[in-house]
Every structure is written in C-alpha cells, then in structure tokens.
Amino acid sequence: MGTNFEEQFQQKIDQETKIEPKDWMPQKYRHTLIRQISQHAHSEIVGMLPEGNWITRAPSLKRKSILLAKIQDEAGHGLYLYAAAETLGISRDEMYEQLHEGKAKYSSIFNYPTLTWADIGAIGWLVDGAAIMNQVPLCRSSFGPYARAMVRVCKEESFHQRQGFESLLVLSKGTEEQKRMCQDAINRWWWPCLMMFGPPDDESPNTLQSMQWKIKRFSNDELRQKFVNMIAEQVKVLHMTLPDPDLKWNEEKNQYDFGKINWEEFKQVLQGNGPCNKERMDARRKAWEDGAWVREAANAYAAKKSIAS
Amino acid sequence: MQTLFRKFFYGDYGEEKNLAAENNQPKQTISEWPLWEVFIRSKQGLDHKHAGSLHAVDAAMAMENARDVYTRRSEGVSIWVVESKYIHASNPDDADALFDPANDKIYRHPSFYELPDEVKHM
After folding, report:
1. pLDDT score, position A2
2. Are A223 and A197 in contact (CB under 8 A)?
3. A35 touches chain B (CB under 8 A)
4. In order of start, what are the domains of chain B with their CATH numbers?
5. What ipTM is given for this predicted complex?
6. Of B43, B52, B67, B48, which Cα lies nearest the Cα of B13?
7. pLDDT, tens digit, 9 for 90 and up, residues B29-40
8. Residues of B in contact with A93 (CB under 8 A)
9. Chain B contacts of A307, Cβ < 8 Å?
10. Judging by beta carbons within 10 Å of its beta carbon (0-12, 13-18, 19+), is residue A145 exposed, middle or buried?
C-alpha cells in the first residue's frame, strides 16, 4: 500500500504534474520542503539586515529610495516563502522560533559585514546574481506553492541585480578612491558568493533525492559553474577583476576554470563563527521581542472590535 | 513505514487543522494572527486570481498587508481578502468521483460533430 502511494507520487513528479498541499506526499518530501522553503524565507528576512546598515548613509536620495524598495522586496520574498511553507503544515510562529533559537539555518552569505557603500552594489550584483542562478530553476520546482512563490520572487529579483551592477558601474567610472572601493568590495564578496551554492556535489547529501523529487533541478556545482561563467564576463564591463589567480577560460570545456574554495571558512560560518552571525541573530531576536506589544495590541483591538459588532 | 497525511492543510486552499500543531502539542501560540487568502484582479475585465496568503488580525489589516505584499508593482486594480478558514476545498482523494463523469461526455465538445466543409465556420 505504502509503496503504491509512493510510486504514484513519483510518477506524477516524472510527468511534471505539480504537487499541491492537499495531495499525498512522502513524509520526507514534506520535511525536505519545509526545511528548504523555511530556510529560504529566513535568508530573505536576515538578508535585509546587512543592507539596512546603509539606508541612512546612502549617497543620494535616489540610491536611498532604490535601497528601500529593494529591502522591502526582500521582506515580501520572505513572506511569500513563509506562506508557501505554511501550506505544508508548519506554523509561522514555529518557523520564527526555529530561526530565533538557532535551529534553522539561513544563507551563510548574510553573516558577512557591509563595510562600505560599494558593498551594497556588490550584494546586488553578486549575491542577488547568485540567488537568481539558484532561484530560476526553482520556478519549476515540483511543489506548486513553492514554484509559484519563486515566480514572483524571480520577477522582482532582476531589478536587484541590475541596480547593484549599475551602482558599481558608477563607482568604476569615478575617482581613484571610488574605484578602489569598488574593487575591494568585489574582492571581499566574491568567494563567499561562490559558497552560496553550497558544498560540492560529492559532499551534498540531499542533492540526489531532491533532484529525483524535482525540488532541485541542477546540482550545486552546475549552478556555481554557470555563475562563474556569467560573472567572469560581466566584471570586464566594470574594468575590475575577480580575486582568483586561477580564473581562466578553458577552451576545451567551454567554461571558466576557477580556484579552490575555502570550505573550512564555509563550515565555520555555518557553525556560527562568521564575522556577523551573532549580530544578525541578536538583531532578529530584538526585532521579534520589540514587536511583541504591536502583535498583542493588534490582537486586543481585533478582539474588542469583534465583540462590539 | 508510511504515514499518510489525510488532513486538510491550511494555506493555499483552506484549512482544517495545522498539522505540526496537532501532531506535536500546539507550538503555535494563540497570539498568531489568523491566515487570509488574497485574490487580485490584475486589470479591469479580468477575474480575481489567487495570489497567496498572509497573516492579519482583521480584514482591514489583511487588505493593507495584501497591498504591500502582493501589489508593489501595480499588479492589481482590486483586492479580495478572505480568512482561510472560510474556504471549503474539494479533497484530492475525491477527484476521480467528482470529475470523472465529465470524461465520457465528449459530445459536449464542438469537435465531436463532423460537418461538411461547405459550412466553413461554425
């Protein structure tokens, strides 16, 4: 009986029929998705923090408006994704709790600091660029609500990457100091961005099953390679360089070769020892706790109104 | 061992119970705001279409949140919000019984009828 359900399920997936919340699904499919979608949502929410650091210091009103709009989008993306995860039977509060207690992970990239204004451009171009690489295939994820949320996210994400690149383009044509700042930001964000795609394929235990269930469509290494190929070309437009002496076009493979990633650093950041892990979690918890009176007041107001009517 | 989930999950299409809350003792706090479904008419003349869900204490807040979450780039000219618990959805397990009777009535489709070429467009 059990196998029968599972076979039918896999058949649906193989035929590209989307799975909807009320359909039967293996428990592990449900749990994998809850983990992936909620961690994706957490990443969007925590991702607002490094950028928020520069709202009050943006160099012009135009850049400030753009940055505000971008950060508001990230909040929206988090909300689309939380809602998608909730269709699988986990509550919003439970997900928040997992994040605040450090049980749930978010993307390691947001544990790096934003030291200069150029970092905001680099985040848009590189971090959001890497995110798009990951997210576009997720629009075809086998789970309907996740796929639909990703379609919305991807539509909005393209503005994020373009504004980042354009902002670096301005710096790259500016004074010597601005050029240095631009190069410095690229140098600092490049390697962490490559880590965003996750561990290499031979060390990524979830990839195989996730591919079979079409939760994932490409492996970590495939996406990483695509990203390198794209950025290695775009960086030329900025007349900047990527901090990798081994980066070289490989005619035979028709792709860029690149240097070794420092996976030890990745592990350290994942384990909570990145430059800003503590700061990010403290900020999240504080926001949640400071907002408690608002949540309570809204509840009290709604209760009072429903009695009155 | 296979565990079958035969609950009505809330979210996308209505809800009965929150599975996680029911399986383990309720982790969901009573303070969590109710869930709402958002429907958006993208332009005059088109239907409202399901856009997603959100949490809000009442209809007014649901409306404001829907505007901020789902129409930041003028995706809509009209919004409907309805508390998710009021949506009744068909059960996928009943899909065969519900929708099968339509399959053998091919005479309901215009392509069932073969007409001479002279009739041209009909």
Report:
1. 56
2. yes
3. no
4. 32-108 (3.10.20.520)
5. 0.89
6. B52
7. 567 899 999 999
8. 27-29, 31-32
9. none
10. buried
